[in-house]
Structure formats: C-alpha cells, structure tokens
C-alpha cells in the first residue's frame, strides 16, 4: 500500500528545519519511502504507516502553531510500488525519467 504524505507547517517557522525533523523520524522508522519536493511517499502496512504519519504530524505540530497534513492512499494490494510504478512509466516512455533534480550547472546554462 502506498501513502503520499504532505506535512505543511504554517506560521513563522523555517519549513526545512521542521521537515528535516519529520524526515528523520521517517528515515529511522525503517518504512520504505521516497522524499519528493512536495511530499513523501511511504510504502507499507496500514497501521504502521498511519501511526508514523500521525507521529510526523505531531512533530510538526510541536514546532508550528498550525499544521496542514494531507494523505493520499493507493491501495490495490500490490507491493514494491515505490520503484515498480516509476519503472512502468519509464518503460512506456522508452527511457529513464528524471527522479533527481537537474544539476545546478544545467540551470546556469538554461538547459533545465
């Protein structure tokens, strides 16, 4: 089961610091995940993932007076979807797709 988690602390806080704490918790959990610029995808059991996402919300809530957390769930009974979904689209596209940001040199040359 895939879960897409987005935790958005609002107010006068540095987002990267709060989000780094949230990601430390996710990383230490052992739950497979993929961090993206707008959220984090987790793969695992419902109870484990829900508990972890609750803890992530609470971490942000301790640092921010207002937190907006959104969760999307992809439940089709399949496993290893974090990488399999990407591979499937890449196969149909006929080549590997960018899963990492372009290098800063590409931005300087206008190629990104």
In short:
This protein is an alpha+beta fold and 112 residues long. The chain is 46% helix and 24% strand.
Q: Any overview of this molecule?
A:
With 112 residues, the chain is an alpha+beta fold. The chain has a single domain (2-93), classed as Alpha-Beta Plaits (2-Layer Sandwich). It has four helices and four strands; from the N terminus they run βαββαβαα. The protein has helices at residues 15-29, 46-63, 81-93, 104-109; strands at residues 2-10, 33-36, 39-43, 66-74. It has a four-stranded antiparallel β-sheet. α1 packs antiparallel against α2. The N and C termini lie far apart (33 Å). The mean pLDDT is 90.
Keyword list:
46% helix, four-stranded antiparallel beta sheet, alpha+beta, 112 residues, 24% strand, Alpha-Beta Plaits, globular
What's the level 1 CATH class?
A: Alpha Beta
Number of domains as seen in the coordinates: 1
Helix share bin:
40-55%
Strand content: 15-25%
Task: Give the topology.
Elements: E1 2-10, H1 15-29, E2 33-36, E3 39-43, H2 46-63, E4 66-74, H3 81-93, H4 104-109
Antiparallel strand pairs: 1-3, 1-4, 2-3
Helix pairs in contact: 1-2
């Amino acid at each position: 089961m895939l879960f897409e988690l987005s935790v958005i602390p609002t107010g006068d806080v540095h987002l990267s610091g709060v989000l780094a704490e949230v990601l430390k918790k996710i990383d230490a959990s052992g739950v497979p995940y993929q961090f993206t610029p707008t959220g984090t995808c987790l793969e695992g059991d419902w109870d484990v993932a829900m508990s972890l996402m609750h803890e992530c919300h609470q971490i942000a809530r301790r640092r921010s007076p207002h937190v907006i957390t959104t969760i999307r769930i992809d439940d089709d009974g399949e496993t290893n979807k974090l990488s399999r979904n990407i591979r499937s689209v890449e196969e149909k596209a006929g080549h590997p797709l960018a899963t990492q940001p372009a290098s800063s040199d590409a931005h300087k040359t206008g190629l990104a």
